[in-house]
Amino acid sequence: MVPKNAEGPPVVVVGAGPVGLAAAAELVDRAVPAVVLEKGARAGAAVAEWGHVRLFSTWRDLVSPAAEKVLAGTGWRRPDEGSYPTGADWVRDYLEPLAEALGERVRFGTEVVGVSRRGRDRVVDTGREEEPFTVRVRTADGAEERLLARAVVDASGTWGAPNPLGADGLPALGEAAADRVSYRVPDLSDPPVRVRYEGRRTAVVGSGHSALTALVHLAEAAERDPGTHGVWVLRRGEVGDAFGGGAGDQLAARGALGRRAQRAVESGNITVVTGFRTAEVRTGAAGAVLVGEDGRELDPVDEVVVLTGFRPDLSPLSEIRLALDATLQAPVGLAPLIDPNVHSCGTVYPHGARELSHPEPGFYLAGMKSYGRAPTFLALTGFEQVRSIAAAIAGDREAAERVELVLPETGVCKGSGLPDAAEAAEADAAQADTGRCCGPAAGPQPVESPLPVSSGRR
User: Fold this and answer.
1) Which of 263, 88, 92, 80 is nearest to 189 (CA)?
2) What is the pTM of this model?
3) Is the C or the N end of the chain the one with fewer CB within 10 Å?
């Protein structure tokens, strides 16, 4: 006899990253057919692009419980729980084995270009909820397909949509044509990349964890080649708390990274420019010149690294009825819980299908994409999201409403934003000094700990 959950079309999961693969594992655990559609050629394709960066979480917090069940029969062994993997480690030692264990459920080179209801655009009410979703895809060879789905979980992330250089949220004048502008933390261990930045002047625009990581890399490069210099461009009027809280920071690793960035600035290898909101970038033989909204022009630089956060690409969802917060572009039930103007480490609580639901029944945003433009995200939170979503899809409302995320008393907010074991050691020492991680000891355990690129990017 075929289980009821196995009848009908599968659930389509968009994205074979940490949260998308965890969603598939949760659905497999509930005998719900699922297919994962990944634009890239491998599992964790986006994570691999920041593979040189070390995560802020240990292995203990980076493996989905449901995924571990899927991996159990393959001989897979969990890495040392107390160590901090790089993005490359996470892909090689967990995401790729998980995708392999899920087998034919994961399709690579398959880009989702549209989602709708069969025979219904977003305007039509009649019979809407009775129709399955249609998922339009484009394969690597350019072929188009239309798949039917009982539900859709979009865990495609935000990596492909970095925020622009322009301070008004639009690309600065000249930005699109500027070949000296990039949007990723440069990997200075890669010889071709090193040639591009060492011995040259680089402007780093942004004030979050990625920007601090880039500044530290440039300062270290200046020790090898004194011609290397960084220009840290901040929109805010002063550095303020951009370095974090030091030894008293609730995020121990954020404090450790901030102290290293502060030392980089104090070394004289980084010049700080505050209160600068870019309106235009002009490129010429002398380099790239940033022009501010107030008319100020900075001295020419050879490269501009824009690390001002990411945003969700919602264009494939134009026919889906979404309820999104006007500010964050996150689900309206989730937005008040993650607003960066209010929340930090220790104040974002576990959430699930209820907060992630939309007027379109059976459609969910999950993972970093569910956070819209909010800058921080914890892998454990994503795992809890998809556990609850899978339960809701399977019809287990009691499990969907139940919070099952149990956090360790310490360590959730620890980790490193740099590929350096010394950074992790410094974070551990800071953690020992503070004696706790994040939030109060009593009551529900609040959580928020950023990954270095998928979250701490402003």
Assistant:
1) 88
2) 0.87
3) N
